[in-house]
Amino acid sequence: MMENTDTLNWLKSIRDSLRASQCEFVFEQQRIGLTRFASNRIHQVSETEHRILTVRKVVEGKLGTYSTTRFDQDSISHALRHATSLASLLPKAETPVELAEEGHGIFTKALDWKTAHLQPFERAHIVSSVLSRRSCSDDELSGALITSHEITSVVNTEGTETLEERSTVTFNLVAQRGKWSARSYWAGWRIDDLPLDQLCKEVSLANREEEIVQPSEVPGDLPVLLDYLAVGQLVGFLGYIAFGAKAFLDGTSFLRQSLGQKVCSDQISLYEDPESVIPVGFDYEGVPRKHVTLIDNGIARGLVTDKMTAKQLELATTGNAPSPESVEGPQPERLVLKPGDSTFPSMLSRIEKGIYVRDLHYVNVAEPLSTTITGMTRHGTFLIRQGELTNRLPDLRFQVRILDVLDSVLALGSSPRPAEGVTGFCLVPPLLCERFQFTGATSE
Amino acid sequence: MSYSGLKDLSEFVISRIPTRDVNYADVRVCHRTHEHIVVRNGIPQRVWTSESCGVGIRVRVADWWGFSGTSNLTSIGVESAIRNAIATAGSVGYIPGAGEPFVPPPPTTAEYATPMVRDPFSVPLSEKLTLLETACAQMGKDPRLNLREASLEIWKDIIVFCSTTGSRISQTIVHCGAGIVAWASDKGIIQCRSYPASFGGNYRAAGYEFIEALDLPGNAPRVAAEAIELLTAPPCPARTTTVILESSQLALQIHESVGHPLELDRIFGFEASFAGTSFVTPDMLGRFVYASPLVNIMADATVPGGLGTFSHDDEGVAAQCEPLITEGVLTGVLSSCSTAPKVGRASSGAMRADGWQHFPLVRMTNINLQPGQSELDELIAETKDGIWLETNRSWSIDDRRMRFQFGTEIGREIHNGKLGRLVRNPIYRGITPLFWKSCDGICNSSQWKLWGVPNCGKGEPMQVARVGHGCAPARFRNVEVGSASG
């Protein structure tokens, strides 16, 4: 990996040597370490180093983009020529592209040197310590520990010069016992923060050998307690289908009709918070990322934009320009669901009869405008009786309108945790809701 | 980098592997060029070309696999990657009991290139843009059409493989595809129609002639009209009925409920923490009744034009045609040189990696349902009461690939052997073997079509594979259908 200041200086020297106007250079450098394990054994380990330079050239307001992994002078000149010819061939732009002027600085808030340089044997040691825990001794453990060291720099001819260097850790842990499984997940940027004890304890506890109850009919009209993994999927999909500017402009987002209106329970506040989980400083146009209120006490308030969509909407960019590879347009990447004041036991104790859902699987959008999604529950679905998790249920198929679920919130947990979203990470608490429509069970 | 430069690089890398530490190694030098063009409402939204060149080094130390990839192709970068690969293999042995069997393929020398008439990268951008802009324009200007999109995507992968057992395989694989979609909305209802399939259209291992033959502009008016017609169509009524799946929807059905569950790494639990496992167990091979006797499904990496067509997989195993389901009985699986020996078989040649930067995984090739005997008209005429479902809109299946729910863009009721009224937001649900056992009619080869799925995700971090599925429309009895809009 090139050092961060070397990277920025190198990129500036490319810009200066090419003497081109209206162009931007995005350099991404990534070292990823992966240790996957299954059935209590490591089965896949890799170390990958990837560097890619993207040249964005604006000609009369039209944008051509070319990415390359070759960095000699000839290859970079070729990339610029190609981007220029792409841009030149485009028809007149309705909304001319403008390069950002506002980005300056180096962002290293999420950089931990130890994490960035973690070696394969160190990851193996961590995985080994998980596999040898007594709490998990009866389970078959699978998962992945992934660490990375990433540098992203954006330099353009309009004065933007930004660099971001970060480390990341994600740890996915699944325990299986017979047909049953349980899962924990964590994301952060410092390996020493990885809460191994907690994650191991959770999968072990969730794997209690309870008798399974095959529901005689699809459970309905019962309160449902969604744990953080399930909530992450729920709000992740909401962010994906509704809060990106492209969906808004295309008319596939409910926001088009509902901005400024009440769309769900006033207990719900949802933000794009670039400081959360793994802080991010700049977007891929070199624009500083902003905190954006998406839903405020149940009222739809905003969406995320890049420079182009912001201009089309006559708004300021929120600093959510995606990587050049992305086809989705600007998307929320750090969703935060404001926690409530309930502890998990207190939410559980108020349920006389209900259902606990740990995680959701293979979620897909059934109808975007109504925020309808379908999927399965996974890694632990339990019947709740008299305030306690009792029998296991089979995995259940659901089809819900996300906004309906969020409109029926009874309580939110007080302790948010990192979870996977759809286009980034989420920080979410468990959520107790009155309505969550199951449509079938996985009886075989 | 030139073709000969890639070959030289692969020879250099393999020559630097320290054979005293490593009992087997293979090297893949890959150069990928990718172009993606999207035109929305007649205006180009994305014109992006990328190239990525790197080397993936897989080594075997004792019984342990290690892997390293780098785009730093200097001698320092490559030497560092070799050291990393060996270090990763060593870390596997940190936990007792680790290790996988491996039966290396016989040494092979081969060269392969996707047959094509017109290299899509040589087609001028202006020609591609004109095609997409015309397709958008042909969708019309009805105010209810809020989005008209046309797109095309092209990949060229040059893969040079060499191994310490002496294999030298060079492949140039070109994939391309295109499609259109119209989104219409009115009075709080939103509907879409796509052609030739959803999520980008259809894809083939072929040249630009494939994109031209799709005739996007010619199909655009119909697609737009159907999107508008769906706005006033009633929701699909909930009931249990007979379903006839159009072939692009059936392709996805095969993908999710046959292809994935028959990946042997999933069967052994290697994907338990992410993509999931499988309801299939090794002891089912040769005896489990997966489908009705009409159903014959092959994993065919040799069929011309498939996204899973190649001469050798990423372990250097020759492309094959493996029967997966024979007259309804499970007879085969998708496997690799490390997983196949565990079930007493040879690799089916299904190890594939997403570029140089990933460890190969067991993936689908072209999972094809063999054609049956029926004419489509006959199949519909014989159906007293049912529904025709066309073009995927959503998909979801449980982690063991047993219980699924799919939605399609369009449904058309069948009454007394005739297609009737249009219904919107149709969904259908089922349980994999019960669904396939209910298949009582498959159209003949005149309706058989090869589809490309360019976005099959698997692995951590996610690898995206391009795979193929050939099939003709087929009929299934007693299927639960309903509406995605409730």
Average pLDDT figure of chain A: 93
Helix content of chain B: 10-25%
Regarding quaternary structure, how should these chains be classified?
A: heterodimer
Largest sheet of chain B, if any? 8 strands, mixed
Strand content of chain A: 35-45%
Give a short account of the largest sheet of chain A. 8 strands, mixed
Number of strands of chain A: 21
Cα(first) to Cα(last) distance of chain B is 54 Å
Question: Tell me, what's the shape of chain A?
Answer: globular
Number of strands of chain B: 23
Low-confidence stretches of chain A: none
Low-confidence stretches of chain B: none
Number of helices of chain B: 9
- CA gyration radius of chain B, whole angstroms: 23 Å
Q: Quote the average pLDDT of chain B.
A: 96
* Integer count of domains of chain B: 2
Q: Which bin fits the share of residues in helices of chain A?
A: 10-25%
> What class do helices, strands and sheet pairing of chain B give?
alpha+beta
What does this entry show, briefly?
Chain A is α+β, with helices and mostly antiparallel strands. Helix content of chain A is 23%, strand content 37%. The termini of chain A are far apart.
Tell me about this structure.
- Chain A has 444 residues and is α+β, with helices and mostly antiparallel strands.
- In chain A, 23% of the residues lie in helices and 37% in strands.
- In chain A, the strands form 3 sheets. In chain A, strands 8, 13, 14, 15, 16, 17, 20 and 21 form an 8-stranded mixed β-sheet that branches.
- The N and C termini of chain A lie far apart (51 Å).
- The model of chain A has no long low-confidence stretch (mean pLDDT 93).
- In chain B, 20% of the residues lie in helices and 40% in strands.
- Chain B contains 9 helices and 23 strands.
- In chain B, helix 3 packs parallel to helix 5 (216-231).
- Classes of the chains: A alpha+beta (444), B alpha+beta (486).
- Chains A and B meet through strand 1, strand 2, strand 3, helix 2 and helix 4 of A and strand 1, strand 2, strand 3, helix 2 and helix 3 of B.
